[in-house]
Design brief:
- The chain is of the alpha/beta class.
- 48% of the residues lie in helices and 15% in strands.
- Strands 3-2-1-4-6-5-7 form a seven-stranded mixed sheet, sandwiched between helices.
- Helix 1 links the parallel strand 1 and strand 2.
- Helix 4 packs parallel to helix 6.
């Protein structure tokens, strides 16, 4: 059984076309198409006679991550495919993804060739991929591609929330599963408008930084907070020591030196940040102890 999960928001014109293309491509296979309506306002209804099409509606817009989670919870297949609803993902590429899974891989991520997106989207994807490759050893060329196929077993220990679905392939890779990529066609949007704007670009940057922290330091928070807090503490201590030497040996008055207040502030902030790391370590320790 193949479960194709398609989250959407106001894609009334695109979905009937996409469903028809998927039905042609999957003839002879056991499959289901799960459409997750994330609070659309265009009153979409699936085409009549589509017994293998499920429509699940959110009462309000909850975001793509929640929509994907809803689709997963309602999917019966051992093979799951994520697709976007805007017709930019081509169903003709689906056999390539499935063939890779048959070849022993656990997750296959798409690489969009000749992308039809705006310069803003391309720039964000390029910078995010470079950042992840350098700092998180990401094996992916186009981690933000929404077209991917994977085995249900890779969902172990991954919680979909917010926008972290972007880094789902990275979590799969870190859990030791076999991952690969294939080139997929990126078609032009025929209907509606893109949901990606400048605000999502800023959110995407924050999401990338969050992913860096979670996958790099989630089990060793003191390594992150300790470096920042220790640096602030050392700089503050150095400033304070220099000022004390100037006061004791060179009789320089300190009440006109705001640098003293800055040095003391850095010491206090450094201690607080370091303590945050220690508290984080305690939380991780207690969590692991409960799980064991």
């Amino acid at each position: 059984m193949i479960s194709i999960i398609i989250p959407f928001y106001n894609e009334k014109e695109s979905l009937p076309v996409l469903i028809g293309q998927l039905n042609k491509q999957l003839t002879g296979k056991e499959y289901e198409i799960i459409l997750v309506d994330d609070g659309s306002t265009d009153n979409f209804h699936p085409p009549a006679g589509g017994s293998n099409v499920k429509l699940i509606k959110h009462k309000k817009k909850k975001g793509k991550g929640r929509a994907l989670l809803t689709g997963i919870r309602n999917a019966a297949g051992e093979i799951i495919v994520f697709m976007d609803a805007d017709l930019q993902d081509d169903p003709k590429d689906l056999p390539k993804l499935l063939k890779k899974l048959d070849g022993g891989y656990d997750l296959v991520n798409g690489i969009r060739k000749e992308r039809q997106d705006s310069f803003l989207v391309k720039a964000y994807s390029f910078l995010a991929s470079k950042f992840l490759k350098i700092f998180l050893r990401s094996p992916y060329t186009d981690i933000n591609c929404g077209y991917k196929a994977f085995k249900r077993e890779v969902l172990t220990d991954f919680a979909f929330y917010g926008n972290n679905f972007r880094f789902f392939p990275l979590a799969v890779y870190y859990n030791g599963f076999r991952v690969t990529e294939v080139e997929v066609t990126n078609r032009k949007r025929l209907y509606g408008v893109s949901k990606f704007g400048s605000s999502k670009l800023i959110i995407g940057i924050f999401d990338t930084i969050t992913a860096y922290f979670l996958y790099k330091f989630s089990e060793k928070p003191l390594h992150f907070f300790g470096i920042i807090g220790g640096t602030a503490f050392l700089i503050g201590s150095l400033i304070t020591v220099i000022l004390v030497i100037q006061r004791v040996f060179f009789h320089m008055m300190l009440y006109r030196r705001p640098l003293l207040l800055f040095g003391v502030l850095l010491i206090i902030v450094g201690i607080q940040i370091g303590m945050t790391g220690i508290i984080g370590e305690l939380i991780v320790f207690l969590h692991k102890k409960q799980k064991n």
